[in-house]
Hints:
Elements: H1 3-12, H2 14-27, H3 35-48, E1 51-53, E2 63-69, E3 73-78, H4 109-130, E4 135-141, H5 150-156, E5 165-172, E6 176-178, E7 184-193, H6 208-222, E8 231-238, E9 250-259, H7 262-283, E10 286-295, H8 302-315, H9 322-333, H10 351-360, H11 388-392, E11 397-403, H12 414-419, H13 423-445, H14 447-460
Parallel strand pairs: 3-4, 3-5, 5-11
Antiparallel strand pairs: 1-2, 2-4, 6-11, 7-9, 7-10, 8-9
Helix pairs in contact: 1-4, 1-13, 2-3, 2-4, 4-13, 6-7, 8-13, 13-14
Amino acid sequence: xxxxxxxxxxxxxxxxxxxxxxxxxxxxxxxxxxxxxxxxxxxxxxxxxxxxxxxxxxxxxxxxxxxxxxxxxxxxxxxxxxxxxxxxxxxxxxxxxxxxxxxxxxxxxxxxxxxxxxxxxxxxxxxxxxxxxxxxxxxxxxxxxxxxxxxxxxxxxxxxxxxxxxxxxxxxxxxxxxxxxxxxxxxxxxxxxxxxxxxxxxxxxxxxxxxxxxxxxxxxxxxxxxxxxxxxxxxxxxxxxxxxxxxxxxxxxxxxxxxxxxxxxxxxxxxxxxxxxxxxxxxxxxxxxxxxxxxxxxxxxxxxxxxxxxxxxxxxxxxxxxxxxxxxxxxxxxxxxxxxxxxxxxxxxxxxxxxxxxxxxxxxxxxxxxxxxxxxxxxxxxxxxxxxxxxxxxxxxxxxxxxxxxxxxxxxxxxxxxxxxxxxxxxxxxxxxxxxxxxxxxxxxxxxxxxxxxxxxxxxxxxxxxxxxxxxxxxxxxxxxxxx
Length: 484
């Protein structure tokens, strides 16, 4: 199979792909508010010949774009939400807001969606040549990864069960196949309702802020009695007012509970709920909770990861001009905190790979990591969370990172926003599309690969999927007032 014939289609459609990436960068829409982004994707995909459905699972800014018929059915996952407070001029080597306090793509999701779409374009071209009944590709538009976890809500509704596998990628500062797992994460907001009074007549008041503070203290004591790998974070989203001589009649706090497995996070969440109830009783206040979102840990799939690595090697990594290297070097020099670790997760786990990376990165001093890190299968749990995890509990799933940012760039930073509309980012988008498309074509061509991936998946998920999203919950944003 001449896969280059189909990956070259990505080059033919490059202007369309990059235009989408740049437009999404400009829109910089926050989680679950990506209306213009969703509309743009749906239009472009319809024009390309996909059958487009939106909304999906009741999520207004979600969509699915399908082409082909029959099996296998391969899903390609895209994201397109931005982050608040990260407005930044493109290709600029100093912090410079476009809109004061505005939003920006500090995680590169403008590129993530465009690169996934590029892969879908190439796969569609392949399926056209193969003919009816030879397979289906579905490009999923998944909003709200930064706060909304749409893939988890889709998982609760069973949408991923229809796939034979799913592939995706994420912009990064190194080229690698992603392995290892991560944390389950559950976000819940608690509102307390008290009774206002003059603070000097405090016996008449019931302080909602006291309840929040007592809840936080209760959780501090819980930390000694929870698994060492678990984490609990919180933020007070409503302090009840600014006058110290008024007993605060309302207050809210947002909690994030993490543990590797969903079943353990759900147990820990119940204990946090109990503490909230206890705080309300101690203060004579009322408490209400609102589920915000949740996502599960990722399930690794060595078969798919190995296939992605093979195709990454065949595709090759982006090459850079001296001008691009100079731009990246200036971004590196702008970091307030220097990252002295070597690039790539495998560098932390394999001494052999660490030495290879040390040499190729010139001991971590290269401003752009212009090489592919050797594949290393891992079971290590990393500290972050992603709603790709819920996909991986329902179908074999794997993903890659492709360089779109300067080496060691801080996550969710203005430096990443700057690079997200640069030629460095554009090259990463095209590379990612080609790797994902090439791997997908191998899966269509060789049924044994999908069979092996499915067998591995079934073994690793035999304990069952504990969905962290309750029935009846809908994606919402935190910080909004909870009514009693």
